[in-house]
Amino acid sequence: MNRDKEYCLKICHLYSKQLNLYGDRGNMIALAKRCEWRGISAQIESCEIGESFDACSFDIVFLGGGQDFEQNLIRNDLLEVKRPSILRGVEEGVVFLCICGGYQMMGEYYIDQSGEKIDCLNAIPIRTETGGERLIGNLICTSEELRRLGADPLLIGFENHSGRTFLGDGAVPLAEIITGSGNNGRDTTEGARFRNVFCTYMHGSFLPKNPAMADLIITTALKRKYPDFTRLDDIADEFEASAREELKKRYKIK
Amino acid sequence: MCFLTTAGKGIILLMRAVGLNATTFPGKITYRFGKHLPEYLTSGQHVTLITGTNGKTTTARMLCSVYEKAGYKVISNVSGANLISGIITTLIEHRSIYGTDTRIVLEIDEAAFGRYSGVLNPSCIAVTNLFRDQLDRYGELTRTRDLIRKGIGQAGEARIILCADDSLVASLFPDGGENVTFYGISDSGTIDVSGAPQASAETGNCVFCGTMYDYSARTYGHLGIYGCSGCGFTRPLPDIGFSYKHRGNNYYELLLTDDHKTNVIVPVPGEHNVYNAVTAITAALVSGESTDAAVFGISETSAGFGRMEKFEVGGREVCIVLVKNPVGLDRALTFLSNASDAGGVQFILNDKIADGTDVSWIWDVDFESVKIPLPVHVSGSRGFDIALRLKYSGIMERDVRVDTDVSASFDKALLECAKGKCLYIFPNYTSMLELRNYLEKKFRLKGIWE
């Protein structure tokens, strides 16, 4: 980091009132704090139903999950008002973090329980169908991308979804599963990466618990905005490490 | 059936004799052999069922106190065993005191209510509220509401008591009904309407049409006086109206309005306990008690273990507040920031099945807006998760002491709490039981808490 330079990230929480399921807010807190601790200014705004949206005016866009009730509330606005801007944002490399329901909505379509095909944003090449039992529990997986960067590759979180997601051409998994179900409980993949879009089924404390992934998202956004930016300062992540250690011990992961 | 009851009682006595905790097993085993047992044990009795996500135990305790002061013999699952096994165990154990002057008061888990309310022959059903709670178990809050709807549908002629101020609860009977009694705050009350909703509050979108509610008053969480301009759904006019005033030490004075004009001090702190008190009072009123009788027992209620009860050890007070979901912890933190005697804090977070295995909800809690006395002690199998939450709320790592061993962490927290001050402890369900066992052993407090 160039200490004489002032860095600033603009972050948008889409539908913060409706898509805030069980701790999604923790991801915004983690991004803000990890910027603040390094002297990077992070401005968090929200964009709600009916408000106009320009994805390209933000560096990071967050689309979380909701209960079915809330997801149905935002669906029309998402597809009719926000969609063109989201497609342009993805095209131009804006960083997106999409979780659970937000992940599903970024895809091509969702087939619901009655077999009806519901159109989604078609911003990334993934598709989802509902299927049987809800996949609920701790989820631990490894990110090849983090491993390549020399960071701790282990991602730890909690999943709670009934949708089964499958990746199409161009999307790569965010991680490979060690324990848990992930995308569909069949092919050992979890989440998706496409351009600067990061998708996962791990909700709640995903970024607080996975500081390397939080930093990768911040770094990706900073590099895009400041071409001379190289890397973030290291910070002590003692509690993060201990919280992760607890789960690693439980699932006997080295 | 009679044989099973006797056998069940025998099992309870045997288990107690060898020092086992007989709160659920006897019910579980006898129910396996006699599916009609719940009907048999409740038929002809006056049964009140209390369900909802928060406040079941305190409401049940308050109603028990009301009935006891009114001279009834009261049977209740005060141990908090609120699944069918715990309920059957309670009924078998106290069957010998059944009579015309008996009142049965049962708190019941929302899913168990949906399944068993019909066979428990309720005369009265009270629904406290619906907040996000253990979504890893229930999936969706509207699903929890639907379980309660199913339970009410099986309950025949029972009187239904609903919190009008909770839009999700009120949506069970938006137009009321012959058997339905609503309670809620009075427009003319003294309640501050300026309070902004906390992050843990529900969306505020109309449950029928999705339009944002307009609130003319808010109390806590998503509770208040709401109205929808989209479809016209408004808060039902309460049959039992109330307001409340803040009194010293975070206690509230409850004022019933309209036909039942009277007032009473609610001896357990927090606005949510004012609501619990009104739930209990309404249950007594619809069951035929006079206003005086319904109110009298409230001021005599003692807090249950882990429900804001204070006790003294080693020259310090200890106050334990069970917290298991975001609204509950937000309420507890508001309570803490108003407490002038706070000398220390301990958070304990476990992730066993009974707690909900998903601890993500702690990120919905507004730690940022409360002042927490430092250093803060944290413990439990997910102690480091709560430590992480505190760190991201702006507390320095050096001010957070983590020890995943509950008893060791408690000892240190108590030692660091100044004499004459109070150590506030916020455990979730199984960690509260762990702490209770430890306290009973260490301070020989056994038997004080029922």
Question: Helix and strand layout, with pairings?
Answer:
The complex is a heterodimer of chains A (254) and B (450).
Chain A (H helix, E strand, L loop, with lengths): L7 E7 L10 H12 L4 E7 L12 E4 L4 H24 L3 E5 L1 H6 L2 E3 L5 E3 L6 E17 L1 H5 L5 E14 L7 E5 L9 E2 L1 E3 L2 E4 L5 H4 L1 H15 L12 H13 L4
Parallel strand pairs in A: 1-2, 1-3, 3-4, 4-12, 5-7
Antiparallel strand pairs in A: 5-6, 7-8, 7-9, 9-10, 11-12
Chain B lengths: L1 H16 L7 H9 L3 H6 L4 E5 L4 H14 L3 E4 L7 H10 L8 E6 L2 H7 L7 E4 L7 H4 L2 H13 L5 E5 L3 H4 L9 E6 L27 E6 L5 E5 L11 E8 L3 E6 L5 E5 L4 H16 L4 H6 L10 E7 L2 E6 L4 H13 L3 E7 L27 E4 L3 H10 L7 E3 L3 H11 L5 E6 L1 H15 L7
Parallel strand pairs in B: 1-3, 1-4, 2-3, 4-5, 5-6, 6-9, 13-17, 14-15, 14-17, 15-16
Antiparallel strand pairs in B: 7-8, 9-10, 10-11, 12-13
Helix pairs in contact in B: 1-2, 2-5, 4-10, 6-8
Strand content of chain B: 15-25%
The oligomerization state is heterodimer
The CATH top-level class label of chain A: Alpha Beta
* End-to-end C-alpha gap of chain B: 28 Å
What is the CATH domain class of the largest domain in chain B?
Alpha Beta
Which percent band covers the strand fraction of chain A?
25-35%
Number of strands of chain B: 17
Low-confidence stretches of chain B: none
- Specify the number of helices of chain A: 7
Order of helices and strands of chain A: EHEEHEHEEEHEEEEEHHH
Biggest interface, chains and residues, is:
A-B, 37 and 35 residues
- According to CATH, what is the topology of the largest domain in chain B? UDP-N-acetylmuramoyl-L-alanine:D-glutamate ligase
- The overall pLDDT average of chain A reads 94
* Rg over alpha carbons of chain A: 17 Å
Q: How would you sum up this structure, described in words?
A:
The complex is a heterodimer of chains A (254) and B (450). Chain A has helices spanning 25-36, 68-91, 101-106, 144-148, 206-209, 211-225, 238-250; strands at residues 8-14, 41-47, 60-63, 95-99, 109-111, 117-119, 126-142, 154-167, 175-179, 189-190, 192-194, 197-200. Chain A is an alpha/beta fold. Chain A has a single domain (8-130, 164-173, 190-236), classed as 3-Layer(aba) Sandwich (Rossmann fold). In chain A, the strands form 2 sheets. Chain A has a 6-stranded mixed sheet with strand order 2-1-3-4-12-11. In chain A, a hairpin with a 5-residue loop joins β5 and β6 (117-119). The longest helix of chain A has 24 residues, at 68-91. The two termini of chain A are 32 Å apart. Chain B is α/β, with parallel strands linked by helices. In chain B, 34% of the residues lie in helices and 21% in strands. Chain B has 15 helices and 17 strands. In chain B, a hairpin with a 2-residue loop joins β12 and β13 (316-321). In chain B, α4 (56-69) packs across α10. The longest helix of chain B has 16 residues, at 2-17. Chain B is globular, with a radius of gyration of 22 Å. The model of chain B has no long low-confidence stretch (mean pLDDT 90). Classes of the chains: A alpha/beta (254), B alpha/beta (450).
